[in-house]
Design brief:
The protein has 376 residues and is of the alpha/beta class. The protein contains 15 helices and 10 strands. The protein has one domain: Aldolase class I (TIM Barrel, Alpha-Beta Barrel). The protein binds iron/sulfur cluster. The site of iron/sulfur cluster has 11 residues, from loops. Iron/sulfur cluster binds next to loops.
Length: 376
């Protein structure tokens, strides 16, 4: 490491080089520094120790099966009452048909939805998951968030161990990272009091890992959280990973203000976004991947994030997929990016594009389900 303009980063650079876990104070210095050159350089070195020159993406189908929800999170622009205009509740047949609408050349289906009292039940999901696995055996199921699993467990009066055993047996490969928001109880009381609490969010992921289900973790930033709460959130995840390994990616989610109660918070800035990516890469030494999700951050910020510690851009969507959570909140990203565009953006950033599935197995560029069947 050469010249470091911000003296607060000098001891951190030493720790990063020696592989010493960073403290809360280190995290705060990273989030607040103006020395982006040093920050990016440290984060890039940490990224390259994990994944070398690779940057990952997945061939994905993305579905929001229902937006009916009564949890009332203040940052949410997606939820509707069941009789409200814009309410969408897809029957199981429609979810499967939607996934297949543009063929079967994908290896992950990503589905999340609201706490819908009619749809979010094992009677709906277990048969649908088995049908997915029977119809698309090459596809991994990345379903639910811990908030949805908590809802399911309470609804069916099952323990987390029991519900995750049942979901795993029906084909669940990965739990999505949502519902984490910010782990501080102050924040949750204020912003999302009806959602799973921090201790249970973490416990669901830990139980899932022990049941053979992988997961990701998110952090919603840019509302009323403090910098201290962001860093405490990352440290809680780091400790959870030590206790029960199984998280693959950490995904920072920039708040989007349109159409929700936290509209006054406004948009995050490009510099805040970049600092969060780099800080996450440096704080979460035991997470293999930091994901810059193009749907949320936009392709341009994501490409820059690859120079600040991110090594994943999420993935393609089907050309008829319709993401509703961030599009209801004002994202300017489109609905669809193809394989060629991912490769172009990653290569231009100086990295090697690698296709993956939910659990980060790698796939060649000429992969198709037919080619996979022929080589089996
Ligand atoms: S964020 Fe999720 S749980 Fe909260 S209101 Fe929106 S859909 Fe419901």
């Amino acid at each position: 490491m050469t010249f470091i303009a911000d003296p607060a980063l000098r001891p951190i650079a030493h720790k990063v080089d020696e592989g010493i876990p960073l403290s809360k104070e280190d995290g705060l210095a990273l989030l607040r520094t103006q020395d982006l050159h040093t920050l990016g350089s440290m984060a890039q070195r940490a990224k390259e120790r994990k994944s070398g020159r690779k940057v990952f993406y997945v061939l994905n189908r993305y579905i929001n099966s229902t937006n009916v929800c009564y949890a009332g999170c203040k940052f949410c622009s997606f939820a509707r009452g069941e009789k409200e205009a814009g309410a969408v509740r897809m029957p199981a047949d429609e979810v499967l048909a939607k996934a297949l609408e543009t063929g079967s050349n994908f290896n992950q289906v990503h589905i999340v939805g609201g706490h819908d009292p009619r749809q979010l039940s094992l009677d709906y999901w277990l048969p649908l998951m088995r049908r997915f696995k029977a119809t698309l055996p090459h596809v991994q199921l990345s379903l639910f968030t811990a908030a949805e699993i908590d809802y399911l467990a309470r609804r069916h009066r099952l323990s987390y161990e029991e519900i995750l055993r049942d979901l795993r047996a029906a084909g669940l490969d990965n739990i999505n990272g949502g519902g984490a928001e910010i782990f501080s109880e102050r924040f949750r009381k204020l912003v999302c009091p009806n959602k799973v609490d921090t201790a249970n969010w973490l416990r669901i992921h830990e139980v899932a890992h022990r049941a053979g289900v992988a997961s990701n973790a998110t952090m919603l930033y840019g509302t009323v959280e403090t910098h201290e709460e962001r860093i405490e959130h990352m440290i809680a995840l780091r400790e959870s990973q030590d206790c029960s390994p199984g998280y693959n990616a950490f995904i920072p989610l920039a708040f989007h203000p349109d159409g929700n109660e936290l509209n006054d918070c406004g948009w995050t800035t490009g510099l805040d976004d970049i600092r969060v990516f780099a800080t996450a890469r440096l704080m979460l030494h035991n997470f293999d991947h930091i994901k810059a999700y193009w749907m949320i951050q936009g392709l341009k910020v994501c490409q820059v994030a690859l120079q600040f510690g991110a090594d994943d851009m999420d993935g393609t969507h089907g050309s008829t997929d319709e993401e509703r959570i961030y599009h209801s909140a004002g994202t300017q990203s489109g609905q669809y990016v193809d394989d060629r565009e991912f490769r172009r953006l990653i290569e231009e950033a100086g990295y090697v594009p690698v296709r993956r599935n939910s659990t980060y197995e790698e796939f060649p560029f000429d992969w198709t389900p037919a080619a996979e069947a022929a080589s089996a």
